[in-house]
Specification:
This protein is an alpha+beta fold. It is about 40% helix and about 15% strand. The protein has 3 helices and 3 strands. The longest helix has 18 residues.
C-alpha cells in the first residue's frame, strides 16, 4: 500500500462544465487519492479531496478554532479568578484515610 504525500501540490483543473467532467474529476481523486483544485476564470474555487482526508481536515479545523479561542483568554486573570476554593483542599474528609473510630 502506498501513501501519497500531502506535501505535494494538488493538481488544478478548470471548472467542469458537464456531469461527465465532474465524474472524471471524482474518479481521478478517488483512484489517485490526491486532492484536485477546481478553478474558475483562472482562480482557485474549491478543492475535491479523498474522503479519507475528511476526518483529519475536521480535526485540524477544530484545533484551529480551539487555538483561536484560547488566544482570546486573559490567562493571568483566569488563573487569579478561577482558582478553586481552599476548602476543596482541606483534609477534613479524605476518602483514602480510614474513618476514626470513637473511643469506647
Amino acid at each position: 500500500m502506498s501513501v501519497t504525500s500531502l506535501v505535494t501540490e494538488p493538481d488544478r483543473v478548470d471548472e467542469p462544465r458537464a456531469a461527465q467532467d465532474y465524474s472524471d474529476v471524482l474518479g481521478r481523486v478517488a483512484s489517485e487519492r490526491r486532492p484536485v483544485i477546481l478553478r474558475r476564470n483562472g482562480k482557485d474555487l474549491a478543492a475535491v479531496i479523498p474522503i479519507d482526508y475528511l476526518p483529519a481536515l475536521a480535526e485540524l479545523l477544530a484545533w484551529e478554532h480551539v487555538e483561536k479561542r484560547a488566544a482570546q483568554i486573559d490567562w493571568e486573570r483566569a488563573v487569579q479568578t478561577l482558582r478553586p476554593p481552599q476548602a476543596w483542599f482541606d483534609d477534613h474528609d479524605n476518602p483514602f484515610e480510614p474513618e476514626e473510630q470513637p473511643s469506647p
